[in-house]
Amino acid sequence: xxxxxxxxxxxxxxxxxxxxxxxxxxxxxxxxxxxxxxxxxxxxxxxxxxxxxxxxxxxxxxxxxxxxxxxxxxxxxxxxxxx
Length: 83
Hints:
Layout: H1 2-20, H2 25-51, H3 57-82
């Protein structure tokens, strides 16, 4: 699970950077969509780590809350870009 979280979380940053360099609105919408998916996957893996008891919730609670906030921000950006 930790490796999956690492892959998803680093993908968020890489794809957000790529979205910032998009050559068109359509490309931006596509890239930011990937960011939303990977950020949401990161939330999933954080929840799994907590629910399985691998990591205590008090250690990941703030991180999980921030990850959910980022998903909401990226999704709002995607909705705005779609027009």
